[in-house]
Amino acid sequence: KHYDRTLRLYDKSLEDKFQLKHYIVNNIDTAIENGYIKVYYQPVVSSKTGCICGLEALARWQDPNYGLLSPGSFIEILEEYRQIYKLDKYIIEEVCRDYRRSIDNKLPFPPVSLNFSRLDFELCDIVGYLCETVEKYDVPKQFIDIEITESALTDQQDFLPNAIKNLRSFGYKVWLDDFGSGYSSLNVLKDYHFDVLKIDMKFLTDFSSNEKARPILENIVNLSKQLSMLSLTEGVETKEQFEFLENIGCDRVQGYLFSKPVPLETLREKISAGELK
Ligand code: C2E
Ligand code: CA
Ligand code: CA
Ligand code: CA
């Protein structure tokens, strides 16, 4: 009897997952057309000055049936069904539009980093699309950076090194995201050039209790200096973590200590209220 019940519960959650999966795949076009996909921005802060020196664009899906969906519930599915490029193209356009609107209204707009999926390069000419869109909205290229995750680079495929070279030759900065979360980190640093090394937040999860976290972080920061990359640690949640990172010379920090990802208007309100500078 007991067994029966757990089995049913298990089936139910599987069924929900299955339904959401199909909902996502079947509704991505509509969601884009109807403006349900939103760009949230999370500030990147300079350790030296404490000022915002950039924003990361993070996708949200404000769905009329499911409510606010986080990337955790749709990115993987869109990748699995090879639809992710639709979302990433839309985010490019939204960010460029936000930039143009801000500049036209004489509002400041720091550089923005966008997350690209490895599949974007395979499924469409994402670099070409980026160049066209940037031109259409007259956005200076130095305002757009591209974040690529480490796992995206572990597949031995030819188009990705070329894509990275192209991006850089067109004037975009390329960041290595989630550094240290995969298994080929150091190789990747040898074979590609990145402008910013984004250190995975896993190193901070047990920061106070795990004595090994500090020397590891310090060495990654030093390594990035020696390889002429800026270092950025993400997932900074406490003052203790921030002070340590500041002390070891980590150039930039990002995390809930400063701000969660929020809509652009909310970010502006926080700046006006003096919560961020
Ligand atoms: P990511 O690029 O590594 O982004 C960092 C994630 O950590 C974000 O989750 C952010 O909200 C969260 N985060 C930031 N600061 C903190 C903190 O202090 N503590 C904790 N616990 N979390 C923090 P989010 O927005 O849910 O995005 C998850 C992932 O989805 C991203 O990881 C990225 O890989 C992917 N993603 C998000 N937007 C896009 C997009 O437009 N395109 C693509 N291809 N992927 C995206
Ligand atoms: Ca990222
Ligand atoms: Ca990351
Ligand atoms: Ca990630």
TrEMBL record:
EAL domain ranges (all copies): 21-275
Domain of life: Bacteria
Record protein name field: Diguanylate cyclase
Full-protein positions shown: 367 to 643 of 651
